[in-house]
Amino acid sequence: MTVNTNGSNGTRDLYDVTIIGAGPSGLFGAFYAGLREMKVKVIDALDDLGGQLTALYPEKFIYDTPGYPKILAMDLVKHLAEQAKMFKPTIVLGERVEQLERQPDGTFKLVTHKGEHYTRVVVICGGVGAFQPKKLPNPELVPYEGHGLYYTVKEKAAFRGKRILIVGGGDSAVDWALNLKDYAKHVTLIHRRDQFRAHGASVTELLNSSVEVKLFYELKTVGGNGKVEYAVIFDNRTKEEMTLPVDAVILTLGYSVDLGPIKNWGLEMEGTRYIRVNTKQETNIPGVYAAGDIAALPGEEPLNLIVEGFAQATRAVNFAYQYLHPGAKAFPGHSSEKKL
């Protein structure tokens, strides 16, 4: 596997398929393209492989990946990278694709802020695009960001022995409460409602754990001498306030997403955040495919799951192969029949 983190090499090498995005879908797509003996390049704007798994929660357990009862996100990325490198793809990190241009000969030129890349087909596995954590509209919180106030957890060890307040009611909030309860001195989770947006089994585990759960509570502010030492929360029904002594506050309020330049490539969209595809993962531009969290069938609610991204990337690559080799079968045969 060739890994290039310093921009394009200035050559006009033509690849069979270029995958935009090095998250789980992109990495598995790179493996499958190699399995079909395609010349593969992967481009990602981040400096590391893994997409959201690496950038947002490398030490969080993933429970819904086939073959693993549970696996750390960073370990899943490691295995996916090892699988992809079997066929030596070229991987370019730290480059954001800004333009997609069809050339007179039918191939594509991808323009980044560092150079140009040439390819016969494109598979967009850009996840949710660029993402920024949602924040509370409270300027008093800003000085504490990185000083006890966090939006992501990169290392669980940093929270060992601490009193933690987690704010939110989605999968991230519940998962982090469960992941950190054995590291921390005490974990409190507050949620503004009595209904969670997390997996039911995880919520049940949470409610039967040592985590202190306070429903109908919200965060008002935090305070301390240069770092978080306490948090003020309030009951949104009675407005009664309570001060909790804490060492860290983790806000899991979701993310604002932006597809960025992709919106200007002439692709048909499904809503504002999805690229419209058909059952072959084809977009409206021949030779351009999309898979994973960024793709959606018309009128269907997307299942933004890692396993769904694997399946879509597999379909995209195999139908891309058929596009490049008219008359060939999309079905590649069983991998057990191939010598790897």
TrEMBL record:
The protein's required cofactors: FAD
UniProt entry tagged with the keyword Oxidoreductase: yes
GO MF annotation: an example: flavin adenine dinucleotide binding
EC supergroup of this enzyme: oxidoreductase
Residues annotated for FAD binding in this entry: S25, D44, Q52, Y57, V97, F131, D293, S336
Keyword Oxidoreductase part of the UniProt annotation: yes
Keywords for this protein: FAD, Flavoprotein, NADP, Oxidoreductase
Catalytic activity: 2 reduced [2Fe-2S]-[ferredoxin] + NADP(+) + H(+) = 2 oxidized [2Fe-2S]-[ferredoxin] + NADPH
Cofactor: how and how many bound: Binds 1 FAD per subunit.
Enzyme Commission (EC) number: 1.18.1.2
Superkingdom of the organism of origin: Bacteria
Domain FAD/NAD(P)-binding: 15-316
PANTHER family: THIOREDOXIN REDUCTASE 1-RELATED-RELATED
Family listed: Belongs to the ferredoxin--NADP reductase type 2 family.
Quaternary structure, from the entry: Homodimer.
Protein name per Swiss-Prot or TrEMBL: Ferredoxin--NADP reductase
Species, as recorded: Candidatus Thermofonsia Clade 3 bacterium
Upper lineage: Bacteria, Bacillati, Chloroflexota, Candidatus Thermofontia, Candidatus Thermofonsia Clade 3
